[in-house]
Here is the input.
Amino acid sequence: MDTLISVKPLIAVLVSLLAIPLIGFSRSPNVREGWTFLAAVIKFALVASMLPAVLQGKEIICQVVEVLPGLSLAFRVDAFGMLFALVASFLWIITSAYSIGYMRGLDEHAQTRYFCFFAVSLSAAIGVAFSANLLTMYLFYEMLSLATYPLVTHHQDEEARTSGRKYLLYTVGASIGLVLPAMLVTYHFTGNLDFSPQGVLAGTASRGTVALLLFMFVFGFAKAAVMPLHSWLPAAMVAPTPVSALLHAVAVVKVGVFSIVRVITGIFGTDLLQAFDLSTPLLFVASTTILVGSFIALSQDNLKRMLAFSTIAQLSYIVLGAAMLSPKGVTGGMVHIAMHAFGKITLFFCAGAIFVATGKKNISEMTGIGRRMPVTMTAFFIGALSIIGMPPCGGFLSKWTLVLGALEADQIAILAVLLFSSMLNAAYFMPVVYRAFFCPPEDALFEARVQEAPLFCVVPLTITAVISLVLLVYPQPFMQLAVMSAAKVTGL
Amino acid sequence: MSAHFPGLVIIIPLVAAFLILIGALLDRRLAFPLTALALLGSLLTAIGLLVKVLQTGVVEYHLAGWAPPVGIAYRVDHLNALVLVAVATVAFVNLMGTRELVKGLFDDRLGPFYTLYILLIAGLQGIVVTGDAFNLYVLLEIAALTGYALVGMSEGRAPLSSLNYIFIGTVGASLYLLGVGYLYLVTGTLNMADLAVRLPALYPSKVVVSAFVICLVGLCIKMGFFPMHAWLPNAYSHAPDPVSSLVAPLVTKVMIYVMIRMMLFVFTPAFAFDQMAISEPMVWLAIVAIVAGSFMALSTRRLKRMLTYIIVAEVGYMVGGFWLGNRLGISGAILHIVNDAIMTLCVFLSAAAIISKVGSDAIDDMQGLFKKMPVTMGVFVVAGLSIIGVPPTCGFFSKWYLISGAVAAGQYGFMAALLLSSLINLVLFFRIFEIAYFEPFHDHHGDHGHFVSAVQEAPFEMLVTLVVTAVLLFALGIYAGDIVSQIIDHAIPVGIT
Here is the structure.
């Protein structure tokens, strides 16, 4: 394996942190958002500049400081990390534009604080993506939990406080209570926490210990919202919509599943889990989350809450893919990170645009809204198709790969779960679209006069919707990155 | 010059104490600069000593040239050099940060206050460097008496708490002295290195066993180890704020140092860990201390009192870590002495800043503080995160060692207690952050920083010291690996794995 030594990963992580003083002390909102954009663009450019090397199969490493004997804060950019970092850093640019439209459209308070903590969150997300070992990942994981707290509780009212409490208790509580001890026990057995293609635990611990550790990690990374540790996510929907969009459809929750997949592949190793036959319980947990999450989404009237439950279900697709331990399954899970990100962020953007333009939060109040906001609702339709997994959207590709993975792993039950879940997805998304466009004129709650949200809202959601479409025909580089890392971690 | 560093560590503050007293009689404005100068001197000496130990190994110093066993020997190795730097740093930083506060509280008594302050530091630094068990007792009393006086300098309930502190503290110190007396009876020496040589031959002796037990109990009282902690919360929470932020970080930590010193270098690990068979019960007591301290902290809604209960729990961390008896656990305990000293300093200093503005230490009165004191609250958040144990603050890394030690020793109860305490600390601090951040509730839509003008920060030098301590918390975290491999590894006897 070729490795390059470079400080680029470190700079890519730090660039948004360095922008904070600039954002914080800007004299006018336009200058402030200018810095956010600049930081976002530089961050994306840095991440993207490492792509060619990664696509050639090289890894870029950067050791920062040895904090414990034999254990460093270190970065290692591989295909999987690159996939996630590309998605997160690209969508930060889009979300920044959307934030301007949303936050100014609603005349929100404390926007400077908002943009500052957004920048911290992105640093943390990229930090997780590029972590070379579990300790570094834990550090950025915690940083993300704490940096998003002021964003989730942005409104500073009693509801925000209750949700913030739940958010912290689940994410930080689980990471201190489960991940930290699991990490220390792993370190005790292996003396090494570096992510390696076939894990580090093999041959050091008994089956019982490995099983215990596995479940401590899977539930401990509560940001992945694997049931029963999922209920922080719907609660966190009190946040302003751009926060829900980028953090609770992309950065935060994907950091959770990313961490789980990383640990499954880089600490345990697929061979070890196969040998100990630990795939089945993991598949069971993921499948349960997928189905139960979708069922609950069916019953939601609040649009953002419905999207939250949909996210809970979709996240477990990624866990499910990794738990199949087969090359196709892992590929499907990994690429679903990208596909779901573009689809779901579109949906959240739409929910926010509707709220900015009409003040409506509930699906029952959106009858006929397609007449008033055709662009937004078309984008919503595309995003929904992508999540359901229907062509012509990118979501089809990841679900297709997952289905192939299930067949490859001989898991017919999983196949059934995947297909049934897609039906459920259609069952909760399609009525929204149907009501928006195809209601009788006398039922419509909106006049047929086109009045969209501000341009800063509409353009980003159009972009992400278009990308969702494009990803079906041109899924690169995400597909290639996922295939590369799946090949590496499964050794096939 | 550098040959006299071990002596200077005590002599500088002792001489300065007289100068300050006299100088303050002439002009009480002289008290602060003189103290600052002396403490800066002793800090630089301490750092010089650490550098010297790192370069050349153990530094021996015979006071006034008298060789032991007749004279008093000061012996500085990696262990006490490290603790010494921590003590000197806290003493100096706290002095700089609390200047305005002290002036406000004791404007008419600046001379006595700073004299007591520096005598306390002389005592504590002496305890750390001395290699003589009886001399340690003398210095212990110097530190204790000045401590009682400082704690009692406030109005209200402080004198009563101080009286309680005197009674219990005297019992502790007397027990220690009694133990040392027994040791002297059987060995005829008070020099620690000598004791360590002579004791192994006498281990079956009941006198030595009694001495061991009595010493340990005395030290446990002095360090506020549960259930002998009762004096601590009152004394530290009723003390004047600039005193709390001095004694809370230092006194208990120095006592834990003394325990480590006595166990490892007087009684020797073979006796303390293997023959006495008290490691297991001590770890269990530590677990109880951690859990009890954490829950008591939950039960109060007063800031300083909550912090003192956290100290009770933190003492459990260090005692438990030490009695795990393996290298990881002891490293964690020693590292935590340093980290906790700075953490406690940081958190008590920010509490002092907050209380001086809010006028109360009830956490319910802390509404809107993020708006009012953004810098202080920022530092307070960092300190809180360090106490919770979030990387890369230093609190995480000592916890890492302590838990690793617990896993290696198979003490999963201790691990669970540490994790539980982290979670409770999370609740404790976020309970305060919530009040300061959310309340008072009002409709924020369209409220664009109308409160910016309401910023009412602590005095400038306080802010600077607060930020310095916060930066220290990160620095100690990032260099934790170096501190352990360069210093602490050499401080622990090679026999311990």
Remarks:
- Residues 445-452 of chain B have pLDDT under 50 and may be disordered.
- Residues 390 and 396 of chain B are 5 Å apart (CA to CA).
